[in-house]
Amino acid sequence: MKLFFAAVLTLGALVQGQPAGAVRDGPVIAFLPPAVNTTGRAIVLASTVTPQGKIQDSIDLYLNGLKVATNVTSAGITSDGSRAVFTDMLNGVEAVGTVDATGAVRKFPVDTRGCVRPLAVCFVCFFSCVATPHATLDGGKLLFAVRRNQPFSTMNVDGTGLVNLPVYSGSLAPAPQRVVGASGLVVFTSAAPFGPTFAASATDVYVMNLDGTNIRNLTKFGNDSRIVSSNATISADESTILFETNRAGNETQIWSVQSDGSGLRQLTFGPGEATSPSIAGDGRHGVYLQARAVNLLELYLDPQPRLLIAEFKYSAPQAPVISDDGMRVLFLLGPPGGAAAAVYQVNSIGSGLRSLYAPRAISPSGVVSAAGLAVPPSPGSLVSVYGINFTADTLATAASFPLPDTLAGASLIVNGSKTPLLSVSPWQINAQVPRETPVGDVDFRVDFTEGTMTPSQSATVVTSAPALFLNAVLHAGTAVIADDEHPARAGEVLEMYGTGFGDTDPPVVSGQPAPSDPVARARAIPVVLIGNLSAQVLFAGLTPALAGVFQLNVVVPSGLKPGRYALTLNTGAFGTISIQ
Predict the structure, then answer these.
(1) All residues at 6 or more sequence positions from 408 whose CB lies less than 8 Å from its CB, including other chains
(2) 6 in helix, strand or coil?
(3) What is the pLDDT of residues 251-269, one digit of tens each?
(4) Would you tell me how many other CB atoms lie within 10 Å of the CB of residue 265?
């Protein structure tokens, strides 16, 4: 019998394409945007991950490397770097306050009546009513928002003098970004700052005095409610405001305007969205995100040149903030499309890129079959281990057989033994579970050649868990996926590729390629249904020349009319297939 397997020789790309992150229950990996003071030497960061890689339910706050608070929901820093400003939630009570490097906390409960909560909240989502705490440059007052009508309030840092400002609706930029200038000028965005309106309106940029007086709009983007401006941040000298908006089209771009409303201009033009602006104290430099890169704007030149200062291939930066002196930039880093999992720093000229806080950990529920997040691992199967900071921004793949047990300085340890590796990236390791692994709860961890290791995560290993890889149902003898554009025909042979189909005869040593003579056939032949009809399985076994990859050759049942049908293995539905 002829076996077709050339179509899956790019296995590294096949399994690397699974979603980044497998957290379905338990503690969630979460990082808050970092904050930096005027000189860039005082730093605030917050995370659910401890420096040792333990993942917990609460977000701890660190000021200059020292843990100073817990259960925080957002955080910033005073300009002199002496205190962090934060919001937190404890026993359902939300508060705003400050904390210094000794851990001395001043905290004041906030009335959250009228808070508008989402209609539906997922079980791993988190929502707080009090947000975006900011300190004035002299550190004497706090400005914060509650998610409701008339959201903004100020108070003295000792908790006295609470004032609810007369802004009907609006948003402040995140806590690490400056929204209050030296004289107390406040910048915010709003579609209805003066009261409810029945007319559609764009979201514009506004400024006001710290006491809520003299509200005036700096942009006038009209009555199109699809135009949204956000994340407005002001230089300390109050000369320049940066913000993001989709005013010029579907993509969000960075714009600037002077605090008197003059000089409105678009600064970025794509391709790709530009977001998350931050501005230096004198308004001469700004940073923003675009295309997995942190970029610098030289605002004192015309036109404003843009300098790429940190770019990533396998990771994505988030939430950059530039120090007031314009010398340092901090930002979060995480998997593309996923939550942040590290804090990085780079000089504004693009040198000195390094991690400030990058604990290593396996995600809760992060050990799954390489064929899908809902599929458990099994002995001999290919597995994806999701986590954080396994490597720098690199992808290391196995180049030959037997598969190595160390790649990029990382080893996956299963019940105390090293495991054959296919690939290692910052956020995911692909490996083959040893055939000798017992069924039941098994410990997984990652060891690193410099001597550190992640905490162990337990995963349940089952006897077999047959599953097909994404886009791995092909017309036999081709690399063409059987999809709506290339439907199958009744009576033709399809190749299907997956993992976790159990023992083979003969057995194959983990990390070694499957033989072609004799082929390693599955001892248990899976049941394959297309629609409600059984598909004849011509072959089920390991794909020769690959490790841990099973191949099914099946015949599309006759009698199927043209249409789309469910494709089902004996373990459950895989997807759909079109028949012409």
Answers:
(1) 390, 391, 394, 396, 424
(2) helix
(3) 999 999 999 999 999 999 9
(4) 11
